[in-house]
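Section 5: illustrative case.
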């Protein structure tokens, strides 16, 4: 963005996870027996950015979450699938970004650093009505950690982005890391009480990293291919990692296409999972398992608006007085 401009981004993410992994080994028997979890995630993100000057900008992101988590109850023999629902406002975040090198002199390559925070505006302890493990007694109970709209903790956002142009090709990379110092939140995990407060949910760190290339192909159309990694670490960088969490990561190949016209940009990306790893529990070292998606659908629309700051040159021969 140029100084003084604003940009509104509306993005949508959709995925369905139903393949179980323990470490990096798929638990194919879960699908064969019909005892697998089906986890759906839909998130709409509204992001408003403003360029203060050529090097400094800031943005605020507001997510809306709609998610489900379902498993047969009873599990053996598989009964009807009891589905839990989580929805509502997620955790709002804000971040400031700074171009390390002067963009007017480094238009072909640059590095951006960002620092921000995440506020616990989403519900960390949402309830829904569903059957218990016997397949009966539908009552209001806490939903699964993975579909809670919020995590209950204040967090710090660290971001690094960079790009370089090589002929007609752009090489790009980014790393976003969310530091969550809070140990556990107030949401019951559904696990047995004991050491490390596993009867409550953990408030884990999270990260996303991407590296890839992009190239224009025709008029206002460009294509890209990236390698993407998303995950929850086994241990937080700051503070303890008690409570219940599902640490692990998934790696994707991410093709994308972008169309730009005037002030508008439309982008579609379709990450495809190529590696999945469910890490052991931080303190009990039990392997556990988790579901991962095959595909993630990403779509975004951006619109740039607002006046551009500039200093008009005074007419020749006029005098510029100071106040």
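Designed sequence:
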């Amino acid at each position: 963005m140029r100084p003084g401009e604003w940009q509104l981004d509306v993005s949508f993410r959709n995925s369905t996870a139903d393949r179980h992994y323990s470490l990096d080994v798929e638990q194919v028997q879960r699908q064969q027996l019909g005892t697998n979890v089906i986890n759906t995630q839909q998130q709409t993100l509204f992001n408003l950015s403003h360029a203060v000057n050529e090097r400094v900008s800031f943005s605020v992101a507001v997510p809306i979450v709609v998610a489900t988590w379902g498993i047969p109850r009873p599990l053996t023999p598989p009964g009807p699938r009891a589905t839990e629902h989580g929805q509502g406002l997620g955790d709002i975040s804000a971040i400031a970004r700074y171009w390390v090198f002067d963009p007017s002199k480094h238009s072909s390559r640059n590095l951006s650093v960002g620092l921000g925070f995440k506020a616990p505006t989403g519900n960390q302890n949402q309830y829904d009505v569903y059957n218990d493990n016997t397949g009966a007694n539908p009552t209001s109970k806490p939903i699964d950690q993975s579909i809670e709209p919020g995590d209950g903790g204040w967090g710090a956002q660290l971001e690094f982005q960079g790009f370089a142009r090589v002929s007609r090709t752009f090489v790009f990379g980014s790393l976003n890391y969310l530091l969550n110092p809070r140990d556990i939140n107030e949401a019951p995990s559904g696990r047995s009480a004991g050491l490390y407060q596993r009867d409550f949910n953990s408030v884990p760190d999270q990260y996303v990293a991407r590296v890839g290339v992009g190239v224009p192909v025709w008029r206002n159309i460009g294509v890209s291919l990236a390698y993407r990694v998303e995950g929850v670490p086994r241990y937080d960088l700051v503070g303890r990692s008690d409570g219940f969490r599902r640490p692990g990561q998934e790696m994707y190949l991410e093709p994308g296409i972008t169309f730009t016209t005037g002030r508008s940009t439309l982008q579609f990306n379709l990450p495809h999972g190529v590696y999945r790893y469910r890490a052991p529990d931080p303190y009990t070292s039990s392997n556990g398992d988790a579901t991962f998606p095959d595909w993630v659908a990403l779509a975004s629309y951006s619109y740039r608006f607002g006046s551009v700051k500039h200093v008009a040159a005074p007419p020749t021969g006029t005098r510029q007085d100071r106040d």
